[in-house]
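Blinded run. Sample ID left blank on purpose so nobody reads anything into the name before looking at the predicted structure. Input follows.
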Amino acid sequence: MRKLDVKGIGMTSQRTRNRLIEKIEHLGIKNKEVLRVMGLVPRHLFVDSALASRSYENTALPIGYGQTISQPYIVARMTELLLDSDNPLDNILEVGTGSGYQAAVLGGLVKNLQTVERILPLYRKARCLLYELGYRNIYPHHADGTWGWQKTAPYDAIMVTAAPTEIPNSLIQQLKIGGRMIIPVGKNNREQVLQLVIRVSENEHTVENYEAVVFVPFLQQTHK
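Blinded prediction complete.
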């Protein structure tokens, strides 16, 4: 197994990482556990080496295949909203593994995380990196996110890291009653809004809007 430069140096050092955490705390992130875990995750390992010097900027960065690693503030905000529950969060689903960075943050905060990625090279790269970093409670799958991951449903919470034009009912159906889903929704990147969905009964759910966001489109399949 290769030796990973987890500590980093210079623009990827812990000092640089700490400055990023201070910045997102200043932007309004209040959950101390989210801030602590994000300060430990080596974001520079989740981007191409050519972009490593920018990895602790509060910005989204390309990871290939038309996908991005999300802005750290948005990662923190979505994680904070996901964790703001009175119910145990033991069984979580992430739709859109991407680089694996959001999964790594969640992996330090929840008991078990299933994560699905439809782009095979991204899935393979994230799976290997997460394993090398020692995560044994994160279970990556190569699958179309439209259908979630039925094998381990229902979930206490679901996080979606791409924006559909409307909330997929197939994902709501994989939530436990009382379960919550954090999802960006909108027709284009000028109209997307971060939403909190709570399943209140078999046939009912509530939706609460938060801030405007910009995510890559959620590519939905027309058949299973």
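Unblinding after everyone has recorded impressions. Helices lie at 14-26, 32-40, 72-83, 101-107, 120-132, 169-172.
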